[in-house]
Amino acid sequence: MNKYNISFLIIIIIMLYLSTTENFYDFKNLPDTYKQIEDINVSPSGKVPKIIHRICPKKKSEWHASWHLGYESWLKVFPQPEYTHMLWFDDELEELIKSDFPWFLEIFRSYNYNIYRIDMIRPFILYKYGGIYADMDYVCYKNFYNELPDMISIPESPYKQHEFIQNSLICSPPLQNFWLLLVEEAINNKDKLVFFATGPALYTNMYHKYSNMINILPMNLYNPAKEKPEFNSPDVITKHYASNVWVGEGR
After folding, report:
1. pTM, two decimal places
2. Complete DSSP assignment for 87-115
3. CATH 3.40.50.720 holds for 50-240
């Protein structure tokens, strides 16, 4: 074998090696502490904590009409004190980033619209605390906690022309590596429209890359389309009323 063939073989070996490790070694923006994770493509197994997270304005007078129904439904179906209910107020979201993830603060502040921040606080909340995040216009009819596996669960979207999954209902154990991967992708997409930068398209793209890290909850039970008859089925566990108060903000 001549020297040119040897050089070509070495290049092929290097390319193959990089192709199998690119998901782990392509971190350019995350702190070194995260890069020391043994395998970023595998999240640790763990139970979803009994915590319900919601994000909203502090003043209830600013809530959309459907939010009151959603808020009360989760309190009823997931009663305290067995379940802890955490409200995250729109104008205080930065505090979590400042205290626990200061390396993301500059980007968090740079977003032009608050919907970006409301979207992007979710992976950080779930990475630190775990639990169940639900949009304020998500209504819950049945307790599904015992149906959740020891991994992230997200409902499939009924609007496949736009996305495969949404970020309006998310269940997660803490310290899931998927959230680090998603944050890294969000950093790369920070200048895009909200749907792609922090919203459902971001989650869909990440699911297609790391489907082994996500359990899909069936849309007919957890996210039926408002326009379809199954939206009013007695079998529905949760459903999204989609108040869309953010529409127009960075679309």
Report:
1. 0.86
2. EEEGGGTHHHHHHH-GGGHHHHHH-SSHH
3. no
